[in-house]
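REQUEST ID: PR-0412
SUBMITTED BY: lab tech R.K.
PRIORITY: routine
TASK: structure prediction, single protein chain
INPUT:
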Amino acid sequence: MELKYDISVVVPLYNEVESLPELHQWIVKVMNENNFSYEVLFIDDGSKDGSWKVVEELHQKDLNIKGIKFQRNYGKSAALQKGFEAAMGRVVVTMDADLQDSPDEIPELYRLIIEEDYDLISGWKKKRYDPISKTLPTKLYNWAARRITGIHLHDFNCGLKAYKSAVVKSIEIYGDMHRYIPALAKYAGFTNIGEKVVAHQARKYGTTKFGLNRFINGPLDLMTVAFMGKFGKKPMHFFGVIGMMLFFIGFGFSFYIGIDKLFFNSTAEKIADRTEFYVALAAMIMGVQFFLAGFIAEMMGRTSAHRNVYLVERTIDVD
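STATUS: complete
OUTPUT:
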């Protein structure tokens, strides 16, 4: 895709009708002050409060405003994925629509990508205005993500990030993977990942859209990202190794039982009455199952081209 702008600002939103006009004015002010060519992509994730009407009105006043509206709510990851696919800027900046991310950070994020050649810059909300029920789990997730991915960021889930265009065109986000985009970028080969302390604004309108399910989805998605990054292209290296280990453990027990029965304790209890027999049988069966799981995963990976399908209801000036 041809790169037409200095910056693409991708803003996923869900029921943020009050904040959109103010956010638009703030972004335009920053862009004009720095003479950036730009586009703003508002991705409406199935809002029910009139947010899309506001996006249409903003487009009538400002042709730099573009929009995509989903037919229903798919989640933040789906919105970011669609925004990344449509973005035509050299640098892609993401931010939330609730005014908690400051557009004033954009010029420095752009400079870090262009002048210092970072692939990705992640914001770090060092001073937060969120309740402890949100900040405490976030700290735990960030600690776990650092240990598992090897990426030393303080705030993986910060909505304010900047990317080279090549990064967003090379990754696919689904489920709730938006939390771990830096890990997806690293596994795609973009390893020059940096961090910048950014301002965090107190929520001005509405309420948070994230419920208690994030406490379950977060760790599960982290394990998925870690597994896919290491074994996504070679699942046999994971399942096959475990399968072979279990099979040889079972075979070893079987060999031991057979030799013991034939040459040393021929008059002892029947083989089927010994505990080792069932350990050997279970290990060999599980080993074969793991090996077959790896083989099937390899076949599926080589023959399928999976893409998530998100139903778009309307668009504004998006190719």
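NOTES: The beta strands are 5-13, 38-44, 65-70, 89-94, 120-124, 161-164, 193-197, 312-316.
REVIEWED BY: pending
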